[in-house]
Every structure is written in structure tokens, then in C-alpha cells.
Amino acid sequence: MHVYTYICFSFKLINKKINKMKKIVFLSAIALSLAFISKAQTKWNIDAMHSSVKFSVSHLTISEVEGSFKIFSGTVESKTPDFNNASINFTVDVNSINTDNDMRDKHLKSDDFFNADKFPKMTFVSTSFKKIKGNMYALEGNLTIRDVTKKVKFTTIYGGTVKDPYGNTKAGFKATGKISRKAYNLLWNKLTEAGGAVVGDEVTMNINVELGQQK
Q1: Is 50 exposed, middle or buried (0-12, 13-18, 19+ CB in 10 A)?
Q2: Three-state secondary structure call for residue 134
Q3: Which of 21, 47, 52, 143 has its CA 20 to 30 A from that of 170?
Q4: Which among 86, 138, 144 has a CA at the least distance from the CA of 120?
């Protein structure tokens, strides 16, 4: 009887040790997986000093007016060195609009256009960033202006990745696309004597960004 009890007790101890070892192996595997994921995914911030957000729109059907937003920020997260399938978030301060004309800028901030008091931010969240060929990429995502969110597409050129003189890793991109301002309730307009629109509907966006990799 004592031998039987001893054997049962021994088996229980062995099972406990085996289960403990299994648990340690399992937790170790999870830790290694998380470390690999963390190492594989890189995070980047937009270097606003070396970036720009510009736009142009037709005026009187015969010329174009250009402008820019001076304050913006954004992040990029990528699991691959070439940024394929990266996730992108971008925010623009509407009150930072600048067309080199104070009266026009004030009008653009009013409810005729952006209503910057009520809707001070424009945002973009990517849904797809695909490498097409070479350094050309197709960027798609949701752009929110005022209280309207719509899908947009940008043709994007990857400029490359380098180390700056201070040892920081930088990457560059240029994105171009077109949107309808009326689709976002930027509706103000008047007609010329010939019947043409004073301000065109189609707005061309030109965005140059330099990214700095987080350390």
C-alpha cells in the first residue's frame, strides 16, 4: 500500500513538472513571437520641416490658384523595408491654410468652404498601400473633410530610404491625387459673365513627405 501511494505521488510530481515545463515553453514562444513582431514592424513620423501639403484649383476657368497647409502631422507603420502594405494616418490643421491672400484665406476658413471653427481638422486613414512596380505605389484611404468621409486614391512615388548626417533613418514619398470639393460640402461658387465657375470643383493635391524612423 505504501509503495502504491509513493508511486501515485511520484507520478503527480512528474505531471506537475511536465505541465510547468509546457507552460514555460508556451510563454517563451509567445515572448519570442512578440519580440519578432516588434522588431519586424517599423514606425515613422512625418518630418514637417521637410514636408509639404499643397493644392491647386482652377480660377475663372483660365488659371489656377495654389495654396498649402502649414501645420500637419502623420505616422506610418510598416512591416517591410519597402513599405508595401504600410498603414498611414495623416492629420491637417485647416486653420493653417495659406494662399498668400489673407482675405481669401479667411473666406476659405468660413462656412462657405471648410468651416474651420467647427471642423478644424482634415484626416486621412489608409485602407491600402500597394506597390505597383518599381518605386510606384497606389494609396487608397478614407479622407474626412468637414463631416464628410469619402474614399480617395493617390498615386505615390517612393523616393527611397537613407541615413541623414546625424544617423537618423529617413524615407521620402510624393503623393498626388484629385478630389471634388463639392463632394465634401465646400459648395460656394459664382459664375462669370460667360457662365463659367469662378472656382473649379476639382482640387489637385500634391503631398511631399519626409519620414523619420522612430528609434
Answers
A1: middle
A2: coil
A3: 143
A4: 144
